[in-house]
Amino acid sequence: MSKVIEHSLLTDFDVSLFRAGKHFRIYNKLGSHITEVEGQSGVYFGVWAPNARNVSVIGSFNGWNPQAHPLAPRHDGSGIWEGFIPGAKKGDLYKYRIVSYEGRRLEKTDPYGRFFEIPPNTATVIWDNAYEWKDDVWMERRRKNAGLQQPFSVYEVHLGSWMKKSGGFESLTYRELAEKLPAYVREMGFTHVEFLPVMEHPYFPSWGYQITGYFAPSSRFGTPQDYMHLVDALHQAGVGVILDWVPSHFPTDAHGLADFDGTHLYDHADPRKGFHPDWKSAIFNYGRYEVRSFLISNALYWMDAYHTDGLRVDAVASMLYLDYSRKEGEWLPNHLGGKENLEAIGFLKEFNETVYSEYPDTMTIAEESTAWPGVSKPTFDGGLGFGQKWMMGWMHDTLKYFLTDPLFRSHNHNAITFSIVYAFSEHFMLPLSHDEVVHGKGPLIDRMPGDHWQRLANLRLLFGYMWMHPGSKLLFMGGEFGQTTEWSIEKGIQWSLLDKPGHRGVQLWVQQLNKFYTAHPALYRKQFSHEGFEWIDLQDYKNSVLVFLRKGDKTDEQLIVALNFTPVPREGYHVGAPAGGVWTEVLNSDAAEWGGSGKYENGKAKAEKAPRHGRDYSLALTLPPLGCVVLLQKPAPRKTSAKAVPAAEKAAEPASPKPKTAKKKAG
What we know:
Layout: H1 12-19, E1 31-37, E2 40-48, E3 52-59, E4 72-73, E5 80-86, E6 93-100, E7 105-108, E8 124-125, H2 136-144, E9 153-157, E10 164-165, E11 170-171, H3 174-188, E12 192-195, E13 199-200, E14 213-217, H4 224-236, E15 240-245, H5 271-274, E16 275-276, E17 281-282, H6 289-306, E18 310-313, H7 316-320, H8 342-358, E19 363-366, E20 388-390, H9 392-403, H10 413-417, H11 419-422, E21 428-432, H12 452-468, E22 472-476, H13 501-519, E23 533-537, E24 545-551, E25 558-564, E26 570-577, E27 581-588, E28 604-607, E29 617-623, E30 627-633, H14 647-651
Parallel strand pairs: 9-12, 9-22, 12-15, 15-18, 18-19, 19-20, 20-21, 21-22
Antiparallel strand pairs: 1-2, 2-5, 3-6, 4-5, 6-7, 6-8, 10-11, 13-14, 16-17, 23-24, 24-25, 25-30, 26-29, 27-28, 27-30
């Protein structure tokens, strides 16, 4: 094979942007790129290793010989080494062989590598992103519906364990997932999937949170184009794709980013800032400009190359606080003497500003577990700039409440009402995530007390409460049908439970909740605003009953939600109503089709002129045991003189709010 030809994809402007932390498409310049130079096809390589004595490319095309293809350093002080190797081609394996300043010999994978060998092998694969997308309809719809006033019901998925084959021990490939997952998610009514990190990671049981290949989908399940096909299939099914993104830390595996050029290039040298005690991993140095270019470029890369619709940022709290999970003397204060990581704060703000500037129709979501103010406020208003934030307090309080025996729930009423006190301080997403069904916590259904029937009823009630509560929704796979064992990446989830009527009923109930949520603007138009919620009664702790109102825009319908958290049915239960007239029951978690008793239904209830709960009208309802009921009243049609309304417009008037049952045609 020919020797290295001096060649660069980088302009002086590229280099200056990279060094300033402002090059947000640096993946187009660094890494390996198939190209042609002087009439010869081959591959350009560029790598940032400022403290290396020398750098060469070793690979399957040169017998892994470190003397065969040395790279040349740029003479601009950037620390970038580069060169063009004729004859190298797509599919070839390679690494960078780096000799550190003190003479240590390191073999590193490409930080910008787009494809890797299947673990435990670690070489980078020369690859391209050629793919013909077929999701134009989705991308246009995404553009038109951009913003927060839309439903977000997210199905959280670990790709390697959603469904197994070969006796339950082998994961599906990206293309096999494309044949099954989009149809299932669409049928269930979820608006989005959120994948636990798909980026390449050496240790499968890390679930993807220990990343070594930030720019590559894991090769365990196929090629980058196979993963594109999966995203494309989801988009064509009308389902958005959110990726779990981990800019908080990275593993110290010898082939990865740690000790990259013989120094702490991507992290801090001082372990009080650069080493994470919980995850035994390295913490990015957010104050180093080239690292900021790397990370923000990575975020944009997944949206650019893979049409990603949103990023959920993992472990934001660990980034914000210098003393996170550290004892006295184990952390260094900032230059002002505080515990805030000012460099990370600046990075997160710039990340969000850049994402929304480049892709305004996408969404960023923070997993942030503290009371840090303004996580989902715009940066111009003093916030961090995220679109949404996980509502961790709601999750912990709610699960603790449901774990309580209904006999004693009256003494814990505050746990189920407190979330509304701060519900509109952020744009909250309500998560029942993978973290709640691992590490000995057991499945969700194990938090539900009582006999088997009551446990399933409690689970349906939990989901009813969650979907009717203000905020967007996230549910981890298996929860939708009441998985009975803790999540295991080796075993996958228990699809066999769907043969049991009770679990099938829970699944149908979640499906119905999703469809109801997306069909009723009262549940999503104002889901992040106090204008979309109003208590009717939050004080009936003796009966463990909650009643509230959900509202959309002025022209939208109103919904009365009543929740009975005890196994005692309550008939003739009076609740205040915002208006007189007929209210129609549109959801009942105790209906027989979901596995309930089917004995306690309301049908149509008329609000009488009888004051209750500070309102002029009231309804007498039947509340099923451990049940959620929802009643609907659409606004009356506007009165317009017949002369002013053309016949064509009359035909387009809103249909009756009366629910209709579809009937199959004979034959």
